[in-house]
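Morning!

This is the sequence you dropped in the shared folder:
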Amino acid sequence: MSGIVTQGPIFIVCLVFLLGVVVVIHELGHYAAGRAFGAAVESFSVGFGKPIMEFMDKRGTRWRVNWIPLGGFVKFVGEGQLPGDVGKVEEGPSGKPFHEIGVWPRTVVAAAGPAANFVLAALIFGLFFYFNGSYQARVGVVEVLENSAAAEAGIEEGDVFVSIDGDMIENAGDLQTIVTMSSNTPLRTVVERGGETVELIVTPKRQMRENAVGQVQPLGTMGVMLQEMRDTATRVDYNPVEALAMGGVQTWDTVAKTTDLIGHMITGKEALSTLSGPVAIGDVSRRVVNRTMENDSVPLADRLTALFWSMMSICAAVSVGIGFFNLLPFPVLDGGHIVFNCYEAIAGKPMPARVQEGALMAGMALLLGMFVFITWGDVLETGLFNGTRG
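The structure's back. Tokens below.
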């Protein structure tokens, strides 16, 4: 089944599914919070462009499904008004104009979208842990490569990893995730050697190599051959409460790793090209589909199950990413609205309309530039237009 799918339809399907679900949940978070504070909602749209179908509920809100199935948006009555426009709202859906519900309710509404993304991620991770449990096995070193980061740090054959920067190593996947995301970053590494614990500082070297889905990227590498000790391998199962708690922990860990990545880019330890946009998300999803479904040695039912959970994991990671991104303090994002609202709460009056307008224009220009930069980098990286397959 080699080359089952290439760049075309599956790329679009994956992109639409992942971004569509995540963005709609994000907007539902805004909608639910706004309704809870009595705000009038003019419309809730799934997708963009002209509507395929629409209806109006008893509160006067128009619900639409549009032709371009990528994301969605919620529009509150009076939401776009600046301070000088107060009082210019026409008759419409039941409820208060958005600017009249109060500064702290508006802040909660702004934060509710990202919060919904984090909740979605926690639920997906929680479901994964509930149905699949977690795999744990001690990880040992069977070979240390010459002139590698591990060799320079003093790691030896036979060492067993205990923790890295305080995070316990429960399987090889844990170790690989930390190392690949920590190029040129000193890591406090604890290993077990001859029945004693030894603490070392390992600084993974940045190298161009394939990630788990076949993309060639600059990743951190330690330079060791690993082996999981089968006699220590166990599966840990969770009840629903435990699974949900694990989902929350996994979501928090993903947010923490994203924060670390942003910090590394600010300090120059990671390149801005490390950021990924919609093109990269679609490409990763396509590669996951290909790699999972072309493995004929695995029964079809097992491949489909693995594919489902892989796509759900990507959806959760994208949801965390979108929630985190929207909390950045750019004027056109939720984080920017939160900043404006906090200023109003402290100063006792809204930020001047001219300042808001200027900040919005500057924020839009900056985000547009970032989008073009990230998208172009993704296109070059994925080979989207040159027939590259994965």
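Headline: Residues 1-7, 82-89 have pLDDT under 50 and may be disordered.

More detail when I'm at my desk.
O.
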